[in-house]
Design a protein that fits this description.
The chain is α/β, with parallel strands linked by helices. It has two domains: 238 residues, Spore Coat Polysaccharide Biosynthesis Protein SpsA, Chain A, CATH 3.90.550.10; 91 residues, no CATH class. It is 48% helix and 18% strand. It contains twelve helices and ten strands. Strands 1, 2, 3, 4, 5, 6, 7, 8, 9 and 10 form a ten-stranded mixed β-sheet that branches. Helix 2 links the parallel strand 2 and strand 3. Helix 11 packs antiparallel against helix 12. The longest helix is centred in the last third of the chain and has 34 residues. GO terms for molecular function: transferase activity. Keywords: Transferase.
């Protein structure tokens, strides 16, 4: 499999060489390294040309400052790999990262999008693993479309098959995503139907430093409102671009559930439970959906665990019945008040 590493940089000249060198020092080298400098003013372009300008494996692209999504669009357009890796210029790869990721894609042919564990270093020093073992996160079309569920990781922990990006990139939303453009990759991959996996090894080094735009920072209500609005706009744009209309909702939900490893089921079921509970449908429809989803889970577990699953269903049934009763009671009161 031919692979490309896409590095986006803006004014990180103090870290840039370490990022590029971490790719050049891989046990399995990528076929190409594409570095997009997004209009840096700190000498990054000169550093790249002086250190790597004669390296045939490295493509250096300089552009005006248009933000992170613009840099990702440019990197993708100039790439040719079957597997694409992303790397922020202040992060680094473990020497065996690419080798391990390619091995995962070979062992799991259904894997379209891979999230890797990370090691935070710099101001802190710790490994961050979402799961203890490698797992299938499955599909997340419905959960992203209706629940705005973010099934992803930091930019540098992401890789994916080319067809995934071909389905929605380049993305013409650059003005809205000058930063946090990894959200575009995460939601885009979900909505086009990429099956996601998680590699439970800290093979990406995520640098913590004073210039981090998001790590450890708090944001005010205005920022949070605008960010949530951009997410809604992004999802709607992606759904329109990929002609996704949300038909056969329960069928999608069932397939997404079945595509996930048992370790992921509980997390997904909570999300689907919320989506079903909020649906403007009768109680019988809601309970039927929950029952059928639980049967998917029961089939994926050992027989001696079925009793605990049944207990879980009875608890969920009680909660959804109570919610439906309260919702209907509130609606009746409002109707009576308006007719009085």
């Amino acid at each position: 499999m031919k692979c490309s590493v896409l590095i986006n940089n803006y004014n990180y000249s103090s870290f840039l060489s370490k990022a590029v060198n971490s790719v050049l020092e891989q046990s399995v080298l990528p076929d190409e390294i594409i570095v997009v400098d997004d209009g840096s003013t700190d000498g990054s372009c000169e550093l790249l040309q002086n250190n790597y300008g004669n390296n045939p494996r490295i493509k250096i692209i300089s552009s005006k400052n248009r933000g992170q999504l613009s840099a990702m669009n440019l990197g993708f357009i100039h790439s040719s790999g079957d597997i694409l890796f992303f790397l922020d210029s202040d992060d680094e790869y473990d020497p065996h990262y690419i080798e391990s990721v390619l091995d995962m894609y070979r062992k799991q042919p259904s894997c379209d999008f891979l999230i890797c564990g990370r090691k935070e270093f710099g101001a802190v020093n710790k490994n961050v693993l979402r799961y203890k073992t490698d797992v299938s996160l499955g599909y997340s079309v419905l959960s992203s479309l209706y629940g705005e569920y973010w099934e992803g990781g930091q930019t540098s922990t992401l890789s994916m098959r080319r067809w995934v990006l071909d389905a929605f990139m380049p993305l013409n939303l650059e003005a809205y995503w000058r930063v946090r453009a990894d959200d575009c990759l995460v939601y885009g991959a979900s909505i086009v139907g990429a099956k996601k996996y998680y590699l439970a090894r800290p093979l990406v080094y995520y640098r913590i430093h004073d210039a981090n735009l998001f790590y450890g920072r708090e944001f005010n209500d205005d920022y949070q409102f605008k960010y949530k609005l951009r997410i809604k706009q992004l999802i709607r744009h992606l759904a329109h671009k990929t002609f996704l209309d949300g038909s056969n909702v329960f069928g999608l939900m069932k397939k997404e559930m079945a595509s996930s490893s048992p370790e992921v089921f509980k997390e997904k079921y909570k999300l689907y439970f919320t989506l079903i509970r909020r649906a403007d449908r009768h109680l019988s429809w809601k309970v039927s959906c929950l029952k059928r989803l639980l049967f998917v889970y029961i089939r994926s577990r050992k027989a001696n665990q079925n009793s605990s699953v049944k207990k879980t269903f009875h608890k969920l049934y009680s909660n959804i019945f109570r919610y439906n009763y309260d919702h209907q009671t509130s609606a009746n009161i409002q109707n009576k008040g308006s007719s009085a």
